[in-house]
Design a protein that fits this description.
Blueprint lengths: L1 E2 L5 H10 L14 E2 L5 E5 L2 E4 L4 E4 L2 H4 L8 H13 L8 H13 L5 E5 L2 H16 L3 E5 L22 E2 L2 E2 L10 H4 L2 E4 L4 H10 L4 E6 L13 H14 L2 E5 L10 H6 L5 E5 L9 E5 L1 H4 L21 H13 L2 H25 L4 E5 L2 E5 L8 H25 L2 E2 L5 E2 L6 H20 L1
Parallel strand pairs: 1-2, 5-17, 7-10, 7-11, 11-12, 12-13
Antiparallel strand pairs: 3-4, 4-5, 6-14, 8-9, 13-14, 15-16, 16-18
Helix pairs in contact: 3-11, 4-11, 7-8, 12-14, 13-14
């Protein structure tokens, strides 16, 4: 999350305790801050209060999961009612059907759905499904693409230049120490937004590649966008070559009522989901065409892919997820789109008025100011920009926004339904002061 220079004695004391019982004091990497994180105490609506008593607008929303913000009264009631009724059991519940019906009605690729406990688990099961359906073993992914904590799809998540290889045929690079070479051999790495190079790689490896996975909205949490012609090429080539196209919409499902695939007009074979579909509870899901999802069928004996889990489709996540998704009406998405557009346009005007280089990206409820002169099109562009000062600018910007009462995701904004024009006004005032301060540094 970057560095902070805020006086936070209570958080400092908590961190001292944490360091005694957790590696470096942390349980998740994305919470890391120097010299220590700011600890949360409570939240309500779109506001979160830390243990020092400082209140900020929450534009992180637990890394996009809390699309209804904190303590939405209808969701809180659903949590309380379900907790009193049934928290977990081996038996299925009606809520599981209700949530599956909502997803299948909205998301173009989803004729059938199975539930998991996280986005990472959804990606793992999607890989198994693609392999079982095609009879092939390898998976293709984008250089720099993020798809959860899974060693196969972590391959080449953040590779260093000395390992890159040919830009038209990137190497498969381990992300975690100790990753076996055998795992890396099962991954074909594609150069994002290089249509012809990626097309050539897919054709050359058609006999071994079971599926292609991509986040259709963002690479690296908001800084690089897959271009429309690249996504169209993936859909065309995977169909021709007998590969399963997997859209990872764990984060970007929130971009619209029909997900990012609805916005882009491209329907994959499988879609991984999580975050917003749980209403704030832990969840993951895999949906797809009836044909591909048939690998899980038990109608004629043992399935090709066996999938279960102690907390899979647990009643809490199913019921709260169904309630949360029911609140996400077309009108709710329209309002998020309106506020997101207003924030994007407002940030861009501030940038222009101050004469700052860069551009503003985003869709629906996601807003990102990329403080770089040229448009970033792939991981290698992003790395070069980062070492050229972009990373330092992002950390400075985030810190200044924190001082303005705005908690952001690396300087990016993730909106929630409790937000209104007053919150956007407050935010733009803070952005203006933060960027004015940056210009003077």
């Amino acid at each position: 999350m970057g560095a902070i220079d805020i006086e936070a004695p209570v958080s400092s004391a908590l961190f001292d305790r944490a360091r005694k019982v957790m590696p470096s004091g942390y349980t998740r990497q994305m919470a890391v801050q120097k010299p220590h994180p700011i600890y949360a105490a409570q939240a309500d609506g779109c506001w979160i209060t830390d243990v020092e008593g400082v209140r900020r607008v929450d534009f992180i929303n637990n890394f996009t999961a809390l699309i209804h913000g904190h303590n939405h009264p209808v969701i809180t009631q659903a949590v309380n009612e379900q907790a009193a009724r049934l928290m977990s059991c081996i038996m299925p519940t009606e809520s599981e059907i209700e949530l599956a019906e909502i997803i299948c009605e909205r998301i173009p690729s989803c004729e059938e759905v199975r539930f998991m406990n996280s986005g990472t688990e959804a990606v793992m099961i999607a890989v198994k499904a693609a392999r079982a359906y095609t009879g092939k073993s390898r998976i293709a992914k984008m250089e720099g693409g993020y798809h959860g904590q899974f060693d196969l799809t972590e391959t080449s998540f953040q590779p260093m230049p000395d390992k890159w290889g040919d830009p038209a045929a990137p190497n498969s690079v381990a992300h975690a120490a100790g990753t076996p070479q055998s795992v890396l051999d099962e991954v074909l790495v594609l150069p994002l937004n290089d249509v012809e190079a990626a097309r050539g790689l897919l054709r050359a490896h058609a006999d071994s590649v079971a599926g292609v996975i991509i986040d259709p909205l963002r690479l690296q949490l908001g800084l690089v966008e897959p271009e429309q012609d690249f996504l169209e090429m993936l859909r065309e080539e995977t169909s021709k070559l007998g590969m399963v196209l997997i859209f990872d919409e764990v984060m970007c499902l929130r971009s619209g009522y029909h997900g990012t695939q609805g916005r882009r007009g491209i329907t994959p074979d499988l879609t991984t989901m999580g975050k917003i579909i749980g209403g704030g509870m832990p969840i993951g899901a895999l949906g797809g065409s009836r044909e591909v999802m048939s690998v899980f069928s038990v109608d004629e004996g043992d399935p090709k892919v066996k999938h279960s889990g102690t907390f899979t489709a647990n009643p809490m996540s199913m019921h709260v997820g169904a309630v949360g998704m029911s609140l996400l009406t077309p009108e709710a998405f329209d309002e998020l789109e309106r506020l997101g557009t207003r924030l994007r346009e407002g940030v861009d005007k501030i940038r222009t008025d101050l004469g700052l280089p860069g551009y503003v990206e985003g869709a629906g409820s996601l807003v990102a100011f990329v403080m770089h002169e040229q448009r970033i099109r792939c991981w290698r562009d992003l790395f070069d920009a980062a070492v050229g000062g972009l990373l330092q600018r992002i950390e400075t910007y985030q810190k200044l926004l924190m001082n303005e009462g705005l908690a952001t995701m690396r300087g990016g904004f993730v909106l929630s339904t409790p937000m209104d024009d007053e919150v956007i006004d407050f935010t733009l005032e803070g952005v203006n002061r933060a960027l004015t301060a940056m210009k003077s540094l």
